[in-house]
Design a protein that fits this description.
This protein is α/β, with parallel strands linked by helices and 259 residues long. The protein has helices spanning 19-25, 30-41, 47-56, 62-69, 78-87, 100-111, 113-118, 147-169, 173-181, 195-198, 211-219, 229-241, 246-258, and strands at 3-8, 92-99, 120-129, 132-136, 183-189, 203-207, 224-226. Helices cover 53% and strands 17% of the residues. Keywords: Hydrolase.
């Protein structure tokens, strides 16, 4: 049985809408934000520079910000997906360039506060003072949070564990290599903040019709397009139960890339 870990973006992936964009549009407006999106995609501006301008434009109290988000929806398949990975002991982390406070409150509305408190959330830290939204970035990369690092750290930690086991049991190098191949990192995303992680994941789910899918097609990065987390659950469950092989999933990813 493979060891599977799942990482997922939050805005536009777990939540159907981008909660950060809703708040930022209330500040600088939709057209100005989209213009900056284009500048980032053309490498005229770093994502971090965009983040600083975006959050600097927000002029809301925290409660006013939450009120703008209360009617937004969770992906309809996410709750079932979360229950499945939890029941199987599959590590799951939310990896986001959004704000931890918003993510935790939003997930609390949909999963309950206690369950939301158990989530592993790797994101930027937000603190609102009056109407000023202050952001402490997860790292000092141009992405404000390089999501690829989380995946690389996960793979490095697994490799270290396997090598240590090999030393204790005096296993052959071939056995170590085989175990490393059985470590599968799944990443789910939708947008430009997910580009760095796209090249690191073993299985990449890109939400249909969004920037990440378009980017993968342009740059020939293998991926699986998805509408809901039900499709993610089906793939993970198939790999766990042996009804799917990594070779078959990889073929599907290459086919999506070539389409």
């Amino acid at each position: 049985m493979p060891r599977i870990e799942v990482f997922s973006d939050f805005d536009g992936t777990i939540s159907l809408a981008d909660t950060g964009c809703i708040l930022i549009d209330a500040g600088m407006g939709y057209e100005n934000r989209k213009k900056m999106d284009g500048q980032i995609l053309r490498h005229e501006m770093t994502f971090l520079e965009g983040m600083e301008r975006w959050w600097g434009s927000v002029n809301l109290t925290y409660e006013e910000g939450l009120d703008l988000l209360r009617s937004e929806k969770l992906d309809p398949g996410f709750t079932h997906f979360y229950q499945y990975v939890k029941s199987q002991g599959i590590p799951f982390s939310i990896v986001s360039c959004g704000l931890d406070c918003i993510i935790k409150d939003f997930m609390g509305w949909h999963l309950g506060k206690e369950e939301a408190d158990r989530l592993v959330i790797l994101s930027n830290h937000g603190e609102v003072v009056g109407r000023q939204w202050n952001v402490t970035y997860y790292d000092d990369s141009p992405h404000s949070h390089d999501k690829a690092v989380c995946i690389r750290d996960s793979k490095a930690a697994f490799k270290k564990m396997v090598v240590e086991e090999q030393k204790k049991q005096d296993e052959a190098e071939e056995t170590v290599d085989q175990k490393l191949e059985e470590h599968i990192v799944v990443f789910c995303g939708d947008g430009i903040s997910d580009l760095s992680a796209a090249r690191e994941a073993d299985i990449l789910f890109a939400r249909k019709g969004r920037d990440l899918e378009k980017y993968c097609k342009i740059h020939k990065i293998p991926f699986l397009a998805f509408d809901t987390f039900d499709e993610v659950t089906a793939t993970v469950q198939g790999l766990m139960e042996g009804t799917l092989t990594t070779d078959l999933v990889n073929k599907r990813q290459r086919d999506s890339c070539a389409a």
